[in-house]
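ingest -> validate -> predict -> emit
validate: passed (alphabet ok, no gaps, 681 aa)
predict: started
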Amino acid sequence: MITKYLLPSLIIGALSSAVTPLVYASNIEGNITKNQVNTTLIPMADFFNKSLVSNIKLSPSGQWIAFFQELDGAQNIFLVRKGQPLTHAYAVTQSKDPINSFQWSKNDDSLFFTQNENGNEKDQIHHLTFGKNKSQEEVHLKLLTKNKDATYALLGQVKDMPNQLIVMSNQDQNGQLDIFHLDVITGKLKKVLENKKGFRSLSFNSQGIPMIAVSANSDNTSTLYVKNKHEWQAVFDTAFGENMTLLKYDEANHKAYLTGDIQERDKQELLSFDFKTQSFTTLHQDPENQSDVYKVQFNDDNQPIAVSYYGGHLRTYPLSQAFAQHWTKINSYFNDTVEISVKSMNKKTGQWQITVGSDIKTDRDYSYDVNTQKLHALLNQKPTIAPERLSKRQSINYKSRDGVNIQAYLTLPKNKLKNLPTIILPHGGPWARDYWTLSSGYFNPIAQLLANRGYAVLQPNFRASTGFGKKFLNAGNKNWGLGNMQHDLTDGVNYLVKQGITDKSRVGIMGASYGGYATLAGITFTPDMYKAAVSYVGPSSLITLLESFPSHYRPYLGQFYSAVGDPEVTADRAQMNSRSPINFVDNIKTPLLIVQGANDPRVTQLESDNIARVMYKKDLPVEYILAKDEGHGFLKRDNKLAYVMAMEQFFAKHLGGKTSKETSTEIATHLKTLKVDLSKL
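emit:
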């Protein structure tokens, strides 16, 4: 049955494994020196190849492939018959605004997708239908949701009524995300749940009715509810800071599957919940006690057949003999170091879709036939950049000042390994994490670009990062800016200096969303550490950050109140002020580049305007890039390339890295239109 996780997050959007753990060299220098080849600069645009295909999805029949590709600078949906070359693909959308996500209808004759205007996150649902031959002339587009002041999320289709979509929206009450059925034929919405309890994940039966749900409570606890006739019954409350996420509802056996770190567990385990006994049973936990459950694979009968964990790299463990046999066969096709994940499984056609990720290649997709055990490539392209020209991305570990282990990814240039200018690149969230593969993060291609320009790039999974257990996650509470979350970044710099990798006089920092906040905190609270900084959609005040969240986020802010504070509580407000970089601009010695989308509903333009204005008035070195047609991160090609050009030039000026000799006049001209006249703020 359908299960969906609803909790919004402060994570910038951009945008798997072997049966047993893969072994990686721990000697940084020894692992890199084998690849000291072709150190010429790679053109900037090659890191963001506009012809690259992504999010490949096989139709339920296995006969058609839909995927994302750029069209006129924005992400659009393309279609091609399986087995035909990419040159036969055609665009089924021609949008100037990027398409956020899409999925095939279970009927196989149509696609659903979501999209918003200029990054405002007020997503609308669209329906694409085709004629018999799915030719370009037969495409028909229909807008299913029409309230542009509301946001709509497509959770799936009702199993027994595929023309009914399950939709989450705040259309009736701006501050509440209710659940509706949306009729694909008539466009009518019918409310099936008034979400007064603030459910953040739900599971539905075959009629599309929610049967089990988890709420997000204001005190950073969660409550598990089950449907008892027509009433919701609370059956379990977590302790403070514990997490539960529903995965599947097994209607036939009256049980549910979920992940949780409840009842004194530290790492999230795969659990089953029995409706009759109202008890939990552990089905699997990380054999290495390293990480939370990352992913669970289910069969068509809603039974778990494999579970994955992600420490520094992805590890997958089969739970059924049949899956194990196929998994061994799939892994035998790949001799290089990769991470393999199952994207979909179709019992009717016998086809699985798998994705293969690498640190130096973009994701590749394949179909696997369970009957023939053959693997077939799906639209895999020749890389724009030869993989051997990119830098290996290593999972490393270092100790923080209080002895806590910090896992991180290190990318080094090919032509030099010592005394390097270095960029610290903290991820957003902060309840997120970085991963190993090139396609797994918005900033991973940028890390490769920076390494090609001569920088060491460190991406730490600092405390409060997800995936490493609740103790590690909750260690970030009230530690923003001044505490161990920021210390973990500082300690990463000191580790690289001690290793001889980093020149401590040439260290920069760049991040987006929470990473942007960490950047601002870095230059205000450790002003001698960094010589250049880029804050990308980063909040400068914790108070205005929380006060400006969209109202439909508010039922889910319990974790924020625990981690940052509640601005309506006097003592918390004082603490939040003490951790807000805007109040400590006088400490800044570091040149700062600010990047912001004008339509960002999470970190509003006010956050960047305020610190830019104050720095300018104090005659501190600051530059400001503002895109009027973007939200929480730049998704349009011209804006993204303009930002990357500005970032490259900025770091080269202050840290001494290399810059592209070949620059696009068009992008340089566009960059000028994004630069803010600080005297007019």
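The longest helix spans residues 637-655.
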